[in-house]
Amino acid sequence: MDETDVLGPVDYIIVEFPKDKANFKGEIADELLTLIDRDIVRILDLVIMHKNDDGSIEVDELDDIDSESVGELARLEGDLGMVLAADDMEHLAAAIEPGSIAGILVWENRWAGPFGAAVRRAGGQLVASGRIPSQALLAAVEADNGSEGD
User: Fold this and answer.
1) pTM as predicted
2) How far is residue 14 from each of residues 52, 89, 119, measured CA to CA in Å?
3) Distance separating alpha carbons of residues 112 and 110, to the nearest angstrom
4) Sign of the CA dihedral 91, 95, 97, 101?
5) Structural element, H or E, at residue 118
6) pLDDT (tens digit, 9 = 90+) per residue, 65-109?
7) What residue segments make up the domains of the chain, in order of their start?
């Protein structure tokens, strides 16, 4: 079976920090590497974006960054697919506040690949997909808990 036959859904996130508080190593790196080691996700791209106070951006690929700044994430360097293009950076930068630094992560949900392949082999197809932001779920739970006392 071709690896693309079992390709899982691909997602991205942007994680923003004030420039003086950016920390992509430590707990963040540990959690991401655990997901990789358990074969739950495969990292396709990882970049660090600096958005200056004037709105201009600077983008560093993982291999451009001092390994001291990213810790154990440096081990991903050779495995990245580099799927983000320069045009993507301009679009993604709109979500980032000036004076911030952000990590942009693109990954494949490997856990879903075999299920998707089974659906296709059975003659089915994915016709819709979506994501409910965790903040919306937390707000709904909080609202529901607040209405229980009524």
Assistant:
1) 0.78
2) 16, 11, 30
3) 5
4) negative
5) helix 113-121
6) 776 667 677 777 766 677 888 889 999 999 999 999 999 999 999
7) 3-111
